[in-house]
Structures are given as structure tokens and as C-alpha cells.
Amino acid sequence: MSRIPRPNTSLPAPAALGASLVLGTLLTVALDTGLLWWVALVVGVVAAFAAVAWSGPLVPGGRGTGADGTREESTVLNTTLVVPTALVLSVASGLLTAWFLDLSLIEPVAAALGALVGSAMAFLLFHRLSTMLALSFAAVLAAGVIAVAVTAAVLYFSDIPPLATFERMIEYGTRPDSLVRIINDGTTYYLAAVAVAIGFKMKLFNIGVDGQYRLAALLAAAVGGYLVLPPVLSQIVIVVTAVAVGGAWAGIAGYLKVTRGVSEVISTIMLNSIATGITAYLLSTDRLAVEISTNNIGTPPIPESSWVPGISAAFLGSDHKIFGFVFLAVAVGVGYWVMLNRTRFGFELRATGESQTAAEASGVDVKKMVFLSMLFSGMVAGLVGLPQLLGSSHYYALDFPTGIGFIGIAIALLGRNHPVGIVFASLFWAFLSQASGILPFDGVPQEIAVISQATIVLTVVVVYEVVHRWGRRYQQQQIGKQLGATAGTSTQDTETAPPAPGGGTADGGGTVPGSDGKRGGEAQ
């Protein structure tokens, strides 16, 4: 691209973005008449990316600066990692968009819209993808490859064909009904992971999410079943009850942490056991439960007026409904990001998590931050059981899902505690769980999915830490080089500076009238 002559003018960013969108979309539409749709889309997005790379130096304020202020343009790592990563992500985003839209739209329209999204991502990633973020994507990709290799090895040595098994899982996991279940399970996993991530940001390990959400779901279901209220008000009361119970139960661990120095790991584990005992005690026909069926008891069914309506999944080709709580999960994710990056509380939270002593020296009330972090983590944990409660089962019974809190820990690690990363990690985890449901019918152990989930979490944690440390050293080297170059330039400018008027030097080292021949600085 650098050999093609460029005009000696600047190009506004909106114009460059529009040109890439037009090129990628039109080329895809034109090639779609004679090629497979995905081949045409790949060619179109690659062409758009090439146009963005060619016009990159013409865009004012474009790429070249990392998040830490270092210059990244034209560096070896930028050329060999960042640019290829941006290209791969652009093509992948276009293909995934087109595949998803193809479920409800005709193929030419889905391909054109996929090319539009891929071309837009090409412009955005080329100008905004930093070296550290590219390293993070590379770490996740490497972990995925290792997990697939380990799973394939286990299948191979078990005399099970790996490729056929993976193909079967993908085919079953991408069916319309499976996609709806993946979204619903992913919604629940996402809330659990965000609850864990809030604690992780403070270097707190909230293992008690599982007990917090189960106790909150039980009491919220009891309130919804016994207390009949008008629509909307009933949903609000149920949600507030769950949030209050979850926050109060986690607040116990936070209080013990700041007043008695009790490790939150120990206290939340113990609180999980206590929550299990309280749930078993209350869930009996002598207290909060009624007989649901011959072998099952639970809280009284919540009236239909208190349910949260589902979303029709006809656009996916399924008769099932998506949980309406998916919008609440989106709101929680947005609120989590805003809190971390746009509020003083989020800044103090991150600062305390990085170094409590430094934060305390800066005037941050560390004990208050620890308690509030556990409180907010528990409040989000209280929401985990509500998608299932108000969207599907409508009562809390013996068969209510358990163990979601521990899954949230794995997903938070996999998503690196980032609200967007947790989205993909939740959907990926739900996909593996759903896709493995077909394996027993083929004589393949369903635990294959568990092996993949555990391997990818372990490898992501290890590989990301290795890559992160290497990336930090690389950043320090780049900053050192820039500081050295700046110091050299300053020294050269000082040496070549002309003499100051009156016989003094450029650094003000001449004599000052009335100072008895002393240097100006010494006289002053």
C-alpha cells in the first residue's frame, strides 16, 4: 500500500469511513452474483481494510498512539501483530453478522449488511486497536487453539473422531432453538460474571455469588407468590427484593472484612453453606413452600401479571422466547462500564484494587470501598436467578438451577472482567454447554464440553498473564526509546542555540547587571 502514491492532502475521518463502507459493500454485492456469499464478503472486507490502510496516514488524528501515549505506528510489533489482528477481527465480525442475519433475511441482504459491518470494523480497528488490546486477542486465540487441541487429543485417545464430534456440536449448537437457549443461559451467566468481576476489580474474591443468588431468588419468589400486586409494581417489588437480599448477604462478608479482617474467601464460602441451610429450611410445606407436583415442592407460582414477557425469536426461526431480562443484563453491563470508567467511585475502586496503600495515601477510604464493592457485587448477584424465575419457571423449587455463581467466576476470568469480554465469554460458555447436549445420543461423553471449558479458562489465565507481562516490557522499552530520542533532540538544540543578546548564553547563564559579575541564578 505504501508504494501507491497518496495525495499530499488530509482526508476527513467521515470521508475515509464512508469510502471504506461503500467499497466493501458494493464489492461484496457484485461478487456475490458469481461466488459463494462468504467468499464475496471476505474479499469485500479485505478490500475495504486495504483502502483504510492506504488512506490511514491521510486521516488527521488517526492511528499511531497507544493507550499509554507511546507511538505504535511503524513499529515491528504493530506491523506484525496489530494490523493482522485488526484484519482478522474485521473479517470475523462481518462473517458472524452475515451468518446471524441470514437466519431471518435473504442471503444477498445478509451478506451486504455483513460486509457493511465488517468494513466499519476495519476502519475502527485499524485506527483504534492498540498493541496491548491486540495482545489480549492473541492470548485468547492461543488459549482457544490449546483448548481445542487438548480436547481433540482426549477424543482421539478415547477412539472418538475429533473432527466429526466438533462438527456435530457446531451443527446442533447453531440450530434456532439452541441459539435461543444459548442467549437465555448467556444472560444468566453474564449477570453472575459481572457480580464476580466487581469484586475482582477490587482484588476481592466473591465466591459467595452462588449462595447470594439462590437465597435472593427464594425470597423474591416467595414475595411474588404470596404478595399479589398490580403489573409493573409487582415486577419492581420482586427485583428490589432480590437485589436487597443479595446485597445484604454479601454485605456480611464485606463487614467482616473491614471490621475484623476476615478473608472474604473464607467468609463467602461459609455464607454459601449457611445460605444452603436457610434455603432448605424455608423450602418446606410448613413454611414458604407448597406442593408443585408429586415429587417437587416450591414457592407458590407467581401470577402471570408478574412475569416478565419474553421476546419472540421468530427472527431466528424458533418458536421459543428469549428472556425479557436480556435488556436488564444489557443495562447492568452498561452501568458496570460507566461506573468503572466515568465515575469517581469507579476510579477509586480501580485505584484501590491496584494498590490499597497508594489509594489510602491519596485520601481514599479503603475500608469503605471494600464494603461497598462487596455490597454492589451481592446486589448484582441477587439478579442472577430472576431471568429463570420470571421468564421460565415462575417459582423457586427443588430443581431450581444451582452452581451458576461458580460458572460466573470462570466466565469473569475468561472475559478479563471487561463488560464486552464477558459477553463473548458468556455466550461461548453457553454454546459449549448447549452443544454438548447432543453428544450422548452419538455415544460421546457429554463431559467433553467440561474439558474444553476448564482447559480454555486455565490457558486463558496463564497465556494472558505471560503475554501481558511481555507487553508491559515492550511498552517500557518503547517509552525508553522515545525518552532517549527526546533527550537527544533537546541536547542537540541546546548545543546549537545562538548566543543570547548582551553576551549571555541561551540558558540564561550570562551576567546580570548589578549582580557583581555573578551568574543570574546564583545572584537570585
From TrEMBL:
Keyword Transmembrane helix: yes
Topology of the protein relative to the lipid bilayer: Multi-pass membrane protein
One protein family per Pfam: BPD_transp_2
Source organism superkingdom: Bacteria
InterPro entries: ABC_transp_permease
Record-given protein name: ABC transporter permease
An annotated GO cellular component: plasma membrane
Annotated TM spans: 12-29, 35-54, 75-99, 105-126, 133-158, 178-200, 212-229, 235-256, 265-283, 322-340, 370-390, 396-415, 422-441, 447-467
Gene Ontology molecular function, alphabetical: transmembrane transporter activity
Keywords: Cell membrane, Membrane, Sugar transport, Transmembrane, Transmembrane helix, Transport
Alphabetical list of CDD domains matching this protein: TM_PBP1_transp_TpRbsC_like
Annotated Gly residues bias: 502-512
Compartments where located: Cell membrane
Record region (Disordered): 484-524
